[in-house]
Amino acid sequence: MQIQTTQKPFKVGMTHRTDMHTLTAEEINFEIDMCIGCDRCMRACPVPLSSQVTIADLNHATNSEEITPIVARFTDECVMCGSCVPVCPVDNHRDLLMLSLKQRLGISWDGQVDLSKAMRHLPAGWDVSLVLRCLREQTIFRDAQLVPDNYLLHFVATSEMQTLSAGTELMREGDFGRDIFFILDGQCEVFSQGTDQKSLPLAVLRRGEYIGEQGMLTGQQRSVTVRAAQDRTIVLKVPEQVMQRLMEVVPAVQDFFVQLSSARAVENMLAHLELFAGIATEDMRALATQATIRRFERDEQLFSEERKAQPVRETFHLLLDGFVKVARKTGRPQHPERIIAYRQRGDYFVGGLDMLGDRRAVTVTAITRVTVAEITRAQLKSLLTRYPAFKERIQERVRLYQEANTAAHSAVFEPFDRMQLEQALVNTSSDAEARSGLHALVSDGVVEGTEVLVIDLDKCIHCNECEEACERRHGQSRMNREGMVVGNMSIVTACRQCQDPVCMLCSRAGIARKPSGEVYITESCIGCGICAERCPYDNISIVSLTEDGDEAQPPSWQRFSRFFSKGFGKERGRKMLPMAQTPAEPGPLQPFANNGLENLRKKIAIKCDLCAGYNNQACVQACPTGAAIRVNPVTFFGSTEDILSRKAR
């Protein structure tokens, strides 16, 4: 299986900043000579340890071999958020200087390992060497040169060893979760819910196997339920951040997971498509392994209806993850493109045709991050020969394409039937507003959400009680009731708990997701602003917890968005804001555990987390007229076809 991506290769620990370049030795010396030692960058730095490091310490370490332990630790904890850059009075590139220091010090996993926590959770009769031997039974860890013992020790030290009794649930179908589980001893049973709501046994996992990679890679809901099949089943529960770190330092591990996970997803989806009915499992698996997996970022085009005589016309496209926009050119200067549908995981295109719609040529563009499996006609050839029924179904698609191609060459994209065409012209004005609303729902990412706060404008009395209730509960309002309007509904500006949250890229586990879907800020957050920078909809904000009287203006992505302007900079003093309830015992990635630095936290991110930890949502509960409600956007607004088939109010 081939994996293709449009993303640039990234440096270790910098998945959020792929465009940085390394300074030369001459540039480093110039930057340090320009520094005036004012320490503004250190005061702006959100890393708590920055309070114990001066800029003089960093400058000395950058151009000498003398690096103190505290500077080395600070360098490793630096998240490359860029807060230091805009506050520098001489315009130094302090982030690039930190990059050079990080590269000199190398990967932290090369250093000494603290196994004290892991030792406390070792099962009776187990030691570290036995844990390593069991991990080496995993396919991805068998090569000790590729994954050294020291890496595995760090891997274990930052994960959680669990000893389970029979029937204990590791994961549940439908829940959100990004942890991955490596089975070190015992057995686990895999189930899926059938149409009769009963659990159907799928597989038994044994020592040397793992489960949970799909959730880790995609952030999607768990597709199966997994339980321990016998007492004293021992698993290593690995958080997403730990797995991400390993994949950064050993890219081959990421390639392994992506290829295997993608092949499984392709095989599973093909088996559920009517087009591939009757094909043997082994042939389906072989086809899945031959598929090319391509990844597209937002707004990238998968293919266009204008492309003719290109391989796309003989290619089967299967959406593995994400949302795409399906559109067709109109030929009109004012409205050159018309959105006709959106498609998601499990949908497919044959030869550039929208087979789930009108079966004609379309232009398809990514709305979210999208993963697509591409299977060429040559790869399908053996199936066409061996399965006559499959060949007939493909020939039907070819015939449909030829008819659509004739229409495309004649530049006719409307119905040929005169009565249908006249009716379409009558409905043009009424459909215009509906299409505008659809475009807003798609382009602004509303369809990505799982929980969207909407206000019925027919019921709203503009009392602002929803915002004020949010502020009373959380100390800062995490919403703005004035947002995009579709029909008589206002889409409130607040986190929508996206299906694929791009904000969840935090090396410190400062943002997480509950199994029920709420994305929340954890006690590990330091307010670096990386999640706020990555959120495409400005629904995460950074607030200060201390007085910053002499600190220069922070970068724009660290300020409140225009929707959160009320109250920015007004929260002064050391005020801790309420967060979602977290486990009593800090997890292995909690950076503040037992080091006394929790009191030095300077900033924190805030976002709507659906009032996680409370028994109601403040905004909905406080609305006196019942205008504010939480909805699933696809269920509430309907599919794109539903929206386009009715007049907007």
TrEMBL record:
SUPFAM superfamilies: 4Fe-4S ferredoxins, cAMP-binding domain-like. Residues 140-247, 314-401 form the Cyclic nucleotide-binding domain. Keywords: 4Fe-4S, Electron transport, Iron, Iron-sulfur, Metal-binding, Transport. Residues 26-55, 69-91, 451-482, 517-545, 602-634 form the 4Fe-4S ferredoxin-type domain. Pfam families: cNMP_binding (PF00027), Fer4 (PF00037), Fer4_4 (PF12800), Fer4_9 (PF13187). It comes from the Bacteria. InterPro entries: 4Fe4S_Fe-S-bd, 4Fe4S_Fe_S_CS, cNMP-bd_dom, cNMP-bd_dom_sf, RmlC-like_jellyroll, RnfB_subfamily. This is Cyclic nucleotide-binding protein. It comes from Dictyobacter formicarum. The lineage of its organism: Bacteria, Bacillati, Chloroflexota, Ktedonobacteria, Ktedonobacterales.
